[in-house]
Amino acid sequence: MASLIARIKPDDFPILVASGFILVILLAGTGYTLATLGTMPLLTPNYLLTQLQTGAFLGIVAAGMMTVILLGHIDLSVPWTMTAAAMMASTIGGPAAIPTGLAIGLCVGLVNGLGVAYLRIPSMIFTLGVDSVMRGLMVAHTGGFAPQDTATDLMRYLAADKILGIPVAIFVWAAVSIVIAAILSRTAFGKSIYATGNREAAAYLSGIRTRWVIVGAFVISGLCAASAGILLAGYSNKAYQGMGNAYLLPAIAAVVIGGTHILGGRGRFIGTVVGVILIVLLNSVLSIMQMPEAGRQIIYGTVIITMLLVYGRTARVTS
Amino acid sequence: MSAISATPRGQRRASALETSFKQNRGFYGAIVLFALLYITYNFLHPRGFTTNVLIANANESVALAFVAMAQAVPVLAGGLDLSVGAVMTLAACIASELVNGDPLRMAFGCLVTLGAATAFGFVNGAIVVYGRLQPIIVTLATGAVAIGLALLIRPKPGGDVDLDLNWAATNSLRDLAETYHLFEDGEAAWLQPIAWVPVPLLILVLVALLVWVPFKRTVTGRTIYAIGSAEGAAYMSGLPINRAKLAAFTLAGFFAGCAGLYLAIQTGSGNADIPQAGAYTLNSIAAVVLGGVSLLGGIGSAIGALIGALILRSISFYFRILSIDPLLQPLVEGVVLLAAVSLGAVRALRVKNRLELFR
Q: How many angstroms away from the CA of B281 is the closest CA of chain A?
């Protein structure tokens, strides 16, 4: 047993613990429904697929957020990038809707990346500023109300339709995940992200163009946020003010719970997927238990801290 | 250093001022920016340079100023506190339950409010120090807990904060004296020169001078700066790192508690408003940066953050007097924030050795 634990790589440990916790959540929820209703709705494929569909939006945001966090940066512009992409996509409409939304994500990512990489402004404040500019643009564009335009058929198909009983959104999430996981583990750009996140000066001295790596990561994050916004607009059939606000903090939490180090340089992509599933299931089980908002927030915070206390502890600073 | 040098006293003082200016460029820049913004605002305002305008502005700025000071302390230690807005909300909800009845009870209520917020900050610090977790993610989680507690205390907006206290704390010194029949109902001769001073401003300045300034001069306070500059070096010098980090988060809790208490007294109620808490946290980060505090730690002060908060608020005051389309307001705010932080960063484009940029 001890040798088994010793053989687990340090990067895999968080993923195992988080997966174990997902089982605990499912069992606790099932225990609750067995005791109150006498049925086990949580373990039916239908329920789990619905959860994964809800998780797809968060999963795509978190995938982009992870590339930025791996650099030791953070992208706080996610909420209004999502909203802006969704609003512009539904305003333009037609076949150009989705490309327009993605173009917005690309532009926001470029601006973020250039500000952080070239002006060396801390990402925390620069992306925050970009977020409020996007919010300002959208308020000016819509007049502060929810726009009347509805999502296009393709957006609705991607977000809410099903293929062979499996929601299409899950396929989209899977596709985004595979692309990002491949970028991170198989390409020179992915390796440069890890290197730059570990120590930017060393990466620079070994010939990595770290500024372009940073710009690239922010562009990925912008594109992911935009895709999630477009999907969310398709799911609810329209874009509305503040639709992205509920995704920023859970995305950061999912990335960190999945074992990615918040200061950058360490973390596996599969961990982020596990983190997203954990957060979505936790929310869903708490709402099945009819937990009031107060209790939910407290449990949510406590779970994050507890999980991190198990495996997120950093070394003591001694030199 | 300067004590050993044989330069005459006056010259020494001048060079000390020069050094202070060089070391706190961001802080002095913030003061100049704020003075320009606020004086211009008063010129443009139809009833500018009057007590009423000052009081109204002060009332709107106090909560954000306290939250910005709360944010500044952990940032100086190289951390970040994403729970300040939530702790403020929690404190406001506690205060909305307790600050009423006879004076003794109200004082007790204020103490409990501040105590609870301070304790919450201490818990943040304890998790960061003994749990050895990153502050940003710890406070993200404890912020959720604080909002949860606030919702438990006050599921619906409301509360009854003492009306006399509300009136006294949100007006001028004369009104304060009149409310509580002090100093001949505020007509005492010695009070007249300062009778126009807004009470909220006075509270803010008093807390800053009586809490932050003495604290900064202690070993613990200096250690916060040392940790922000180079934690390893601070450890090797034998500075009390754990104590300083604990103190930084505890003080953040206290300042956030002041913000919540004032907000409850000002609005007469408490409201566990999650978007509002988030907005205050994000604005506090912006205020800290505008006030010349480095997000990397080690440079700046809570007073700077206070000025930063005043700058942020001054910008929003302009929207009322210049007939700017309210729909453009968020856009202008965002652009001003981006421009302000970018101006300070143009230096990065001129650095010759790129290695200097990495830290």
A: 11
